TrEMBL record, chains A, B:
Pfam families: Glyoxalase_4. It comes from the Bacteria. Keywords: Cobalt, Isomerase, Metal-binding. Belongs to the methylmalonyl-CoA epimerase family. It comes from Microvirga lotononidis. One of its GO terms (molecular function) is methylmalonyl-CoA epimerase activity. GO terms for biological process: L-methylmalonyl-CoA metabolic process. Residues 4-134 form the VOC domain. Its EC number is 5.1.99.1. It catalyses: (R)-methylmalonyl-CoA = (S)-methylmalonyl-CoA. The keyword Metal-binding applies. This is methylmalonyl-CoA epimerase. Transmembrane segments: none annotated.
Length: 134, 134
C-alpha cells in the first residue's frame, strides 16, 4: 500500500538558523521559507535527489508543532510522510486493521495541496505517520 | 554535500510486531530480521520505491538504541541517514563549521559495510544524523 517516502518533517525552533545550517554546513539545496497560515507552520523545503526534508517552525497560536517543541526545545523529527495511490482505500484498510486515524477520519488538504491523513503514533511505534495521496 | 536520503531508522520495542504492522497494515515490502551483533541491533529493512526504513530493536547489553527506548517506550524515529561522496571531506567540512562529530571522529564501518559518522543532535535541530559514504 505505502509507496514513496514523500518527506521527513523536522520541527525546529528557528527556521532561519536551521535552513542556513542545512545550506551552509550540510551543503543542501534549501528553499526560501513559506508561511502556511492555514497549517500553522512556516516551512522550508530541502530537496534531496530522492526525497525531501521539510523544516517546520510554529506559526500562530494553534500550530500543530508548538507542543512538540515544548517537549523537544532543540527540535526533532516530527513526522514521516508516505505516499498512497488512494487515500480513502488506505484509510479503510487501516481502520479495518484496527489502526487509528487522527481527527475526523476525512482527508484534509495538506501543505502540498493534496489529500492527507495522519495516523496515531501509538499504533505505529511512536512515529507520527502522514499519508498523502500522490 | 549531502546526497540521497539513505534511510530513516525507527527504534522499536518489538521488531516482529513492528515488521508485521508495516507488512500487513501498511502493505510494505519487509525483510526478515537480521541480528547485527557488532552494532547492537536487530534490523528489519522496509523497501520503499525511493529509499528505505530501518526498524531497529536493541540487541545485547550495549545497544545504542536501548537508552532511546527507555525514554520513548513506544519507539520513535531514531536517526536519519544522508549519503555523502567522501566521508572524510564531509567530516572536515563539518568540523571546520563548528559542528560536532560523535565518537572518535574516525569513520566506522556501519551496518551496510560502508564508512559512517554520526553528528551531534544538539547541532542539528535535535536530530541524530548519520552520514554514509555512498
Amino acid at each position: 500500500m505505502i509507496g514513496r517516502l514523500n518527506h521527513v518533517a523536522i520541527a525546529v525552533p528557528d527556521i532561519a538558523a536551521a535552513a542556513e545550517m542545512y545550506r551552509k554546513t550540510l551543503g543542501a539545496q534549501v528553499s526560501a521559507p513559506e508561511a502556511l497560515e492555514e497549517h500553522g507552520v512556516t516551512v522550508v523545503f530541502i530537496t534531496l535527489p530522492n526525497t525531501k526534508i521539510e523544516l517546520l517552525e510554529p506559526l500562530g497560536g494553534e500550530s500543530p508543532v508548538a507542543r512538540f517543541l515544548e517537549r523537544n526545545p532543540d527540535g526533532g523529527m516530527h513526522h514521516i510522510c508516505y505516499e498512497v495511490d488512494d487515500i480513502l482505500a488506505a484509510r479503510d484498510r487501516l481502520v479495518n486493521s484496527g489502526a487509528r486515524v487522527l481527527g475526523s477520519m476525512e482527508p484534509r488538504i495538506g501543505a502540498h495541496g493534496k489529500p492527507v491523513l495522519f495516523l496515531h503514533p501509538k499504533d505505529f511505534n511512536g512515529t507520527l505517520i502522514e499519508l498523502e495521496q500522490a
